[in-house]
Amino acid sequence: MSNDKLNLQDISQTMMQLFVQDVLSKNNISDESKKKLTDDQKEQLKKVVADLQAQVNEFVKGAQAKKEDPEKVEEAPKNMTLRDMLKNKKKDK
Q1: How far is CA 54 from CA 1, 38, 89, in A?
Q2: CA–CA separation, 63 and 71 (whole Å)
Q3: Tens digit of pLDDT per residue, the chain (93 long)?
Q4: H or E segment at 40?
Q5: How far apart are CA 29 and CA 47, in angstroms?
Q6: DSSP element (H, E) containing 60
Q7: For 8, what's the count of Cα atoms within 13 Å in the CB-facing half-sphere?
Q8: What is the rounded CA–CA span in Å between residue 53 and residue 43?
């Protein structure tokens, strides 16, 4: 389980790096212009990254919870008629 968690964290970090690089390249931002960011802009970028990372973690937790607790579906025995199933339901109530 811990290996899966570490693997998911590595994947999410890689995806985040790719996303940031893609956004920077689409906006023609070079290494030189990245150095010109103000402290406020750097802080905003850090907040955005932290927010996205939190969303990814919540998504992963939700996916793991669904994976661990699959809904149990009651299957009727194949040789039972509908009348018998309804009688059993009435008895259970």
Answers
A1: 20, 24, 45
A2: 14
A3: 466 666 777 887 888 788 888 888 888 877 777 777 788 888 888 888 888 888 888 888 887 777 766 655 566 566 778 888 888 888 876
A4: helix 39-68
A5: 19
A6: helix 39-68
A7: 14
A8: 15
